[in-house]
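Lest this sound abstract, we let one protein speak, letters for residues, whole numbers for local backbone shapes, and leave readers to judge:
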Amino acid sequence: MAKKNINEMIELLDKHYTTEYKCYLDFKNAFELLIATILSAQCTDARVNIVTKELFQQFPNAKMLGTAPVKEIEKIIHSTGFYHNKAKNIIACAKVLEEQYQGDVPNDLELLTNLPGVGRKTANVVRGNIYKEPSIVVDTHVSRVSRRLGLTKEVDPVKIEFDLMRVVPKDHWILYNIQVIAFGREICSARSPKCEVCFMNHLCKEYRKKGK
């Protein structure tokens, strides 16, 4: 996509979704956001928010979660899917946080991705929302919409992340994540995109391919 079209895309996203920073996961601190994001893999934010309400009532910090019985955690998070691995990862992650960082969550990308169960997506969610570090978060919506718009041809999330870092203005990296999630849910859905009413269809590579 040409630079002038990227600028227009940013303006349209700002107009339709504002420039307000918003996270769809409920959290009170960095620890809660980190654990919630790990749980959000292959699960809706709405479901995670239901689960973490109970989880954090019983295990409100890294020390308590890090010593929790795995079966008890599995029972609480069962509905998020892949609960065996998720339970193992969040307990291990909490244990490392307590032992190495006194229960705090680091803001360094490498330190974050060294934590059990934490990949670049999860690390960037924490860095962007907690520490306000410019970060691109590649979830299913960002991946799908970015390819359709022609911002990337990649399917690998890490490669998509670096493509977007090259073309999206750095001061909009976090906002792009927030806005595109809303856009993907409202208009550019996976199965039935509302192309005819989309306010960015004139910029969309996929729409042009359809001969519109």
